[in-house]
Amino acid sequence: MRTFVSAVATLLAILLAAVAVPAIWLDRNIVQEQGFVELAAPLGTNSEFQRGLATAAVGTIDTSAVPGFLEDLVRPALEDAAASMTGLPGYPAAWEETLRRSHRLSFAAPEATGGESASSLTLDVAPLVALGAEEISRTTRLPLDPPDQTLINVGQTEQKQWTERLSSFAPAGYLLAGGAGVALLLALVAARRRWTVLVGAGIGALLLSAVWTFGSQLASAAVLARDSGSEVANMFRDGFAAAASADFQGWTLAAAITGGALLVVGIVAGFIPRKRAQATR
Description:
By secondary structure, this protein is mainly alpha-helical.
């Protein structure tokens, strides 16, 4: 009976961990604002993405209030602002604020954002627009009034619905992880040979690492297969998917190392008593 309880508890621990680890990763890196910003921030240093984003942001600046005879002055100023924006001292802060605003539109409850919410995954590049408008005003001495919001869709409505589900269910990963730990402890307490629990948990962790790796590849391929209809949005999608996949690979590698360590410890722990028994004969 003890062996049966130990086996069931070990299997339960593995199954709970299978869901808990991806859920915790999603909560820390996608649902939580700071994690999302840290994951997506390096995209702002990609030169191709920088140029596309800066051009798109500057292209939304409203110059209708500028007199017609000054158009020849404003047009090259817009082009110069798009080309030089990423080199401005305020660019890193503007890019970070863009990510924070965008995350709130997609994940925060409407009451937490003053009633503002997007119907699809959206980038709010207003901080970059404000930075470009400020640079144009500085070089041309023309007053420009940047908008409070400048939205670029990077996903579809059904993907926005997934963000709402993630916000609800991803935090449950911590509870599941706690359950996995309790189940593993129960398995160790109930086992007649505790080394078998370590071996089983190690093999389970190695299998989960392989499953998570394969699953993340499928998820990344599914994301990349969807065309958002915008070159800038596609570049953001591609870069973010690559960053997310690389970050999660670190978690799967950690799981594989942990599984290997548990397997080795279990085998050694099982081998030592046998060696002692043989020595006493």
